[in-house]
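The instructor's notes for this session suggest beginning with a concrete chain rather than abstract definitions. Hand out the sequence below and ask the class to guess, before any prediction is shown, which regions might be ordered.
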Amino acid sequence: MSEVVTVFGADKCQGKAIATALLQDGDFTVRAVVQELTSPTAQELQTAGAHPLLVDFNNPDSISATLCGAHKCFVITHTDFNNKDSLRAEVQQGHRIADICKQHNIRQIVLSGAHHVHRKYGLPARHMDAKACINDYMNEIGLPKTEIIVPFYFESFLTTFKPNPVGNNTYKIVIPMGETAMDGISINQIGPIVTALFKSPQRWIGKSCFLSAGRLKIQEYAQILTHHLYPKQFKDSRIGREVLAQRWLELCFCKIPTAQDFMGIS
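After discussion, reveal the predicted structure:
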């Protein structure tokens, strides 16, 4: 009999990738936890063999229904930046899921976590700090957990960090790394990794795994994009970290910063 895995956030990119990989593996029964059963993603996963389940994260009974009878689960929480107290709200959501996992004696949890940013660097990063606090809590209550920490998505070059056109078929990548190499991964690579973690629980429970499919400087990313998309040419915009930090502080309290917010900074 196949193991039942509840995948939270299956209607988001990371959760969908994991649900898809588990289905393709064939050894798991997948519960795809979504917030809209009629969404294209939910219907796509259902066609692939998953069992979509609706959840209200503010309702413990709703969360419990997604975990009842499950053997394992993938947990990811999402930050609502429209909520003035988004960090507290996300932490409470994560604690709620953790408590219910313990009630249902879930055998293995894979958590998409993050590092503490405010604690270490004094900068606001609600989306990361919340996940770090959730990981701490899961450790405190003794859940059989494996944490994954995901780096920059390569797909972000098409969305949040889409290179900015500056004329003459030239584009600048607005990512403030200087000469420091940046780890990256494709969203679709995460699914097979998490599937492997679920297939070898004895090896991975209790560990924290930083994922990476490549570690390159921004200029090296630019060279790769130039090579494949020539005659378009890509360059590192060389944003100063001090300027970026100040701009980030200004933006973090009102909305999600995007690459466009840093245009013109040098």
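Then share the key points. Confidence is low (pLDDT under 50) at residues 253-266. The chain is about 40% helix and 20% strand.
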